[in-house]
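Posting here for the record, re: oxa(dethia)-CoA.
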Amino acid sequence: MPADHGLAAVLCGIGTWLPPRVVTNDDLAQRLETTDEWIRTRTGIRERRVIDPGMSTSTLAVEAGARALKSSGSTDVDLVIVATTTPDHPCPSTAPEVAHRLGLTGVPAFDLNAVCAGFVYALASAAGHIAAGSATRVLVIGADTFTTVLNPEDRTTVAIFGDGAGAVVLRAGTADEPGALGPFDLGSDGSHSDLLIVPAGGSQQRGSGLPLDPADVHFQMDGQPVFRNAVTRMSESAGKVLQRAGWRIEDVDRFACHQANARILSAVARNLEVDEDRLVVNVDRVGNTVAASIPLVLADAAAAGDIVPGHRVLVTSFGAGLGWGSTVLIWPELELG
Ligand code: UT7
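Prediction output follows.
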C-alpha cells in the first residue's frame, strides 16, 4: 500500500486510556515466586495496568476512541477498526458495539486480530480503505485486556502483560503532508504459531471432540525464541520500510517499537546501529499491552515532548502469529487526547 498510490492516510487525532488499577512488581511478588529485581532486570517493566471487574476490552476501546475523536476535532468518521485479540466475546466482533457506544451506529466497523502487530495491520487496512476511496476518516483503535487470558499462576507472562487502549483518527490527505502514513511493510510466519498461543476456545479445540484441558484456555509462550524472533523481525521490517520510504536510518528521529521487553528494544537498537535515546519507551509503566502498545507509546512520547511535530518516526511491531509490520510518518501538529 504505498502512500503515493491514491490518497494517503494522514494522522489527525490520537487518544489513549488505561484502566486505573496499577499492579507493581512488588504486588506480583506478594503472590508469585518472583521479585521486582528479576522483572526489572529481565524486562525493564516496573508496573502495568489491570482491568477491574466489570470492565472489558470495549470499555477501554470506547474511552481511547472518544479521546482520539476529540483530539481530531470531529466525531465524523466513516469506518471503525478495532485491533484486538481479546474481544468482548468470541462472537460478535467488538467494533460494532464500540462504534455504537461512541455514537457511530451505522458506520462500518470490524475487528482485526493480528495480536501485537494488530495496530500496524489496522493502520495499513485503514490506509487501504482511504486509498481505495471507500473511507475518508477512519477511527483505528488498538485495545486489549490480555491479562484476562493469562494463567494467574504463570509468573513469566503475568509479569510482562498489561491492559490498555490507544486510538488514532486517520483522514484522507496527500503523501507529502505531515502525518501521512506509509509505505508499509507487513509479514507473517505461521510455522511458529505455537510459540505464543491460547490453544483452546477456537474451532480446532471445540471440533476435536476431546475433553478440554483446563491449562489450554490460558496463553502459553516460549519466551526465548519469541525474544529472538522479535528482535530479528522488527529489525528486518524496519530496514525494509526505510528502503521503501527512501529514508536512511540516520533520517529517523524516533523509533517506536512494540513495547514487550526493554532488552528487546535495546537489541533492535543495536541491530539497527542507532543510539537508544532515539527509541521511545513506556514498557516500564505499562508492560506489553498487545494491540494498544504502539498508540500508547506514541501518545506518551508526544505528551512528554519526546516526539515533536516534524520528527521522522518509524513504527515497528511484532507478535504472535508470528506477525509483524512497520510504517513511517512525519509527526504532525496534534491536539493530544
Ligand atoms: O509481543 C511479543 C510477546 N512476548 C515477548 O516479546 C516476550 C519475549 N521474551 C521475553 O521477553 C523473555 O524471554 C522473558 C521475559 C519472557 C523471559 O526472560 P528470559 O531471560 O528469557 O528468561 P528464561 O525464560 O530463560 O528464564 C530464566 C529463569 C527460569 O528459571 P530457571 O529455569 O533458570 O530456574 C525461569 O523460570 O527465570 C525464571 N523466570 C522467572 N523468575 C522470576 C521466568 N519468569 C520469572 C519471573 N520471576 N517472573
